[in-house]
Specification:
- This protein is an alpha+beta fold.
- The strands form two sheets. Strands 1-2 form a two-stranded antiparallel ribbon. Strands 3-4 form a two-stranded antiparallel ribbon.
- Strand 3 and strand 4 form a beta hairpin.
- The N and C termini lie far apart (51 Å).
Amino acid sequence: MKMSAKCFSEISRGKPHHCNARTKIKNLCALTPKSKEKVAAAAVEEKFHQAEVVSLKCDRGPPLTVQKPVKKELFGKKGKKFEPTTHDTMK
């Protein structure tokens, strides 16, 4: 099956297809939930390279704001850092 690179519609002989933004969004919304998550994660990750807080456009209503998670250091008892677990240390 061939697909349009612009609107993600199936392309075949005798089958009409309209390349426009509305069709592209409709076809992306028809993806499986797992695929939708992957597309959304890629978009958010790309935006995180530019800012710590990103805004995503929504169909209706205000934009969705997402903040980059803060990496926390793992500490054991009395503030000591945990050693990384490797195959050799798992005995």
